[in-house]
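Dear colleagues,

I hope this message finds you well. In preparation for our joint manuscript, I am sending the Methylamine utilization protein (Leptospira ainlahdjerensis) sequence together with its predicted structure, so that both groups work from identical material. I would be grateful if you could confirm receipt.
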Amino acid sequence: MFRRILASFLFAVCLAGSLSAVEHEVGQKEKKFTVENLKVKVGDVVSFPNYDSFFHNIYSLSSEKIFDLGSYSQGQTKKVKFDKAGKILVECAIHPGMKMTIDVQP
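The corresponding structure tokens are as follows:
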């Protein structure tokens, strides 16, 4: 009985540890992303704060993660959770030169 309880407890601890997501930051500054390439794990979250005095609209049409954060101004932050492995191209709809890649690893 004790072994079964201990095994269940250890399984729960391991499971909880594997489910903890990490939050990463990719800022928007001077019409550029502050990171060009980012590696994250499945389940991680990326925040996209706007440090510029004008609007940005961050989006991705990559099949592994399609999203559109809409236009938002300086001081605002929007977040995306990445739940599938793959390479994600991230762009700004307002500033075509803004591009970055997020490599989501299993």
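For the figure legend, we might mention the following. The two ends are 35 Å apart (CA to CA). Confidence is low (pLDDT under 50) at residues 5-17.

With kind regards,
E.M.
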